[in-house]
Fold each of these.
Amino acid sequence: MKGELTEPSEIRERTFQFALRVIRLCQSLDSQPGVNATLARQLLRSATSVGANLEEAQASQSRADFIHKTSIACKEARETHYWLRLLNAADIVPATRISALIDESYQLTAIL
């Protein structure tokens, strides 16, 4: 069925691609001084942490460790969703450029 994840590698690839897209957005924001650069750093940290924590979960030492690392990834996805929404609401990034990222962050949170 479309949209379902059947393999752990699919969610790991999806979070990797999401992080790449956020990196590209942050590169353009970081070139601007002040608030934009500060928000870009916050967004970059949380967005790249989602996939990094899922990668760590793959090497977990126990089921509890796996659950813990996956829950951290979920929290980071929620934080990323917040920063993306804030960038849009503050008119720093137009909706046309950020709406797909906002949607993906919401979907990743729901999956995790």
Amino acid sequence: MNSLARPVVGITIGDPAGIGPEISIKALLEKSIFNECMPILVGDLSVLEEVNRRLSLGANFRVIDFLEEARGIAGRIEVIDAKSVDVKDITVGAASATSGRASILYIKMAVEHALRGKINAIATAPINKKAINMAGSEHIGHTEILAALCGVRDPLTMFYVRGLRIFFLTRHAPLAEAIKAVKKERIIEATLRINKALGWIGIHNPRIAIAALNPHAGEDGLIGDEEIREIIPAIKELRDMGLNVVGPLPADSIFHQSLERGYDAILSLYHDQGHIAAKTLDFYGTVAVTLGLPFIRTSVDHGTAYDIAWRGLASPKSLIEAIKLAARLSKIYNLSKG
């Protein structure tokens, strides 16, 4: 694997019918990225050229057939051309099997290069769940596709925003099911995995804050008893194991407290509990990180935004942050430390 000061980051352009191609081009027009990594787009050159032309972005592309050809020079965007779709077959701003197949192919190509040690990290622009379903994917989203391609059972998702590291007990589950999943054994398992995963990125003996489920952490059972029955016993057992764990902390204050007290990680109990906090703090600065794969993967934390696709309105900020974070984490990511 590349051990140069600038790691190679492969950037998949996401669903070609969404904002992915636009933000990918805009991100690589940001010269500061080239100080931290050698970025390479993985996608269809024909799509990128058409977006570039329509929006007058002024990008210069260079197709590379082998990653050894990459130079990582600002002002020139290097592309691995998938050659999978014709622009005329793309329905801009709508989900289709065509765009779904293309977005899956880009992921497969990037992963293949990463597993061969040619790419140090992957940053992904958004794909669309409906589109990949129309394309016949058995997986619901990015993380599941990546896990299958890498032979990993259950990778961890971490949100990173302004120093906060947020993990999730449950993510893509209905709220009623997520509440049922708040069990002592599951909390213990998740926290042990978080503790281990943080070691892979150089954080040892981390301070982990665990969120409460109910308002005011249940008020000693007056407003729900999940804290008493499941969460507090889990925290006690984790402390007995030697982990540095605090909680349960009310969800309306845990994120603010973490910013003030510098907790290394927060365990959010369900999808929106963590998402709302992160996106309110900095919507475009929030980056999703997948840990547990053989390589670092980061992603924007927003969707394909079909309503503004190819219109020049999409902000590349989240993708810029994702690329830079991928480069930084790839230098210290080491699964053997777990």
